[in-house]
Amino acid sequence: MATLSKDQAHFLLLKIHSLTGIVPIGVFLVFHLAINSLRTVGPLQYQLSIDFINNLPFLFGIEVLFIYIPLLIHSLMGFYVVFSGKPNVLRYPYARNWLYTLQRLTGGVVFVFLVYHMGTTVVPKIMEGKTLFAAAPFLIDILNQEFQTWTGRIIYLVGIFSATFHFSNGLWAFCISWGIIIGQTAQRNAGVLFTLVGIVLTLLGFATVMEFSFHPIPVTPTVEG
Amino acid sequence: MDAKTIKLKIKRQDKPESKPYWQEFEVPYKPLSNVIACLMEIQRTPLTADGKQINPVTWDANCLEEVCGSCTMLINGKVRQSCTALVDQIKQPIVLEPMSKFPVVRDLQVDRSRIFKDLKKAKAWIPIDGTHDIGEGPVMSDSLRAKRYVLSECMTCGCCLEACPQYTKDNGFMGAAIFSQVRLFNLHPTGEMTQEERLETIMGKGGIADCGNAQACVESCPKNIPLTESIADMGRQTSWQLLKNLLLK
Fold it and tell me: Is B105 helix (H, G, I), strand (E, B) or coil?
């Protein structure tokens, strides 16, 4: 393969930005919200799902390769995208122009939220070496405490909404950017469909937050046998 | 006769590098006037609303029927052609500003050569000239002709670029007009033969991947060209080209 020119690298990086938003980050978001909503079924079901993840082989490698690196690429390119344009939604207040502006805004919010979210969960988990069955009670303890205050709850509600909005609107932009959806009617219909996707994901996330907030139940480590 | 007048507020600039300033004008009302008619009135009687003698306001105009695009400016904050901006249909005082994404030459005149430079870069034409006769081109179906006709109505006025949040004065983004022209010429059976050259230029910096899908372009296009369809179609064509480049070359 020939070496890339500066122009080709620019194009490729933006395409990777668009792709990583859906695979793996978007897919991860959907699974993350869906699995976490097991908390609304019961603390045990929720704990078992965390146990399952924390007992996966090569967990750290999977996380780095499929979550942290793509997230980092998507964020860095995202900051480039934000600063390459200049929102003008007040002069041209069309619906799609609002979504353009909000897409950039929520991207920034999600970035800040993720620094907080990972700083209070994954980072202490790794620092204190809580692996396998020890991870679930440790993480659930942290979350129970975080959801004690309205500040904690609001941080999560804003963070989750920003993420689901950014994802569902990004899904639409992905379909345009890769030319999956072309016609104006198709674009409008896709917009309706992805709005529904966004609403469902937001409700999933909010239900989990509510469950944690109003029923903080501590758990003990799962024992083998 | 009643002394009905038309009030205007115009952003003026004497030289490309000088500071802009505002002046207010009042011209006698004439029924069915457009903005150009008001500017012509100021040219005949170059007086501000408070009676000061000034150099007349300059502007660009040509066809006066919204097919040349040269009289494009910001009217009451939004970009449009001044020939089809009818005084009876817009709010007064009528606020006129030059387009903000292009360098001002003087008053309401701007230099839009960036658009033409980008069209040249994208090879927005069909090469038929050569050292020998290349014969007749393939036949075009009528449905394709109809599809291309709509795209061919672009008059390079720059409304889509002015309204685009991704198109700034200095970032080199090509914008909807260029992508739509690439689509127009790639759709042509003879133009299709050189489509790769066009695709490669919009796969560079400032190309199609920089589009942020704000879709302000299609909202502000005076010719109702389906610019967002063109952008999505270019997304498709460049995505295939990317795959070809990665897998076949």
Answer: strand
The single-letter DSSP state of residue A82 is H
CATH of the domain at A64: 1.20.1300.10
Both B145 and B97 in one domain: the answer is no
DSSP A149: S
Tell me the pLDDT tens digit for each residue of A106-152: 999 999 999 999 999 999 999 999 999 999 999 999 999 999 999 99
B163 contacts in chain A (CB < 8 Å)? 88, 92
Residue A7 has pLDDT above 90, yes or no: no
Residue B75, SS3 per DSSP: strand
Domain containing B215: what range?
113-128+138-247
Query: So what's the pLDDT on residue B154?
Result: 98
In this complex, do A177 and B213 lie within 8 Å of one another by their Cβ atoms?
Answer: yes
User: By the CB < 8 Å criterion, does B236 face chain A?
Assistant: yes
Contact B87, B41 (CB under 8 A): no
Structural domain span for residue A17: 6-214
User: Using CA atoms, how far apart are residues A97 and A106, in angstroms rounded to an integer?
Assistant: 14
Is A1 touching B (CB cutoff 8 A)? yes
Closest Cα of chain B to A5: distance in Å? 9
Q: Is the ipTM of this complex over 0.85?
A: yes
Taking the model in full, what pTM does it have?
0.95
Cβ-Cβ contacts under 8 Å, A179 against chain B: 232-240
User: Are A94 and B215 in contact (CB < 8 Å)?
Assistant: yes
Residue A220 in any domain: the answer is: no
Residue B133 lies in a domain: no
Instruction: Compute the average pLDDT of residues B236-242.
Output: 97
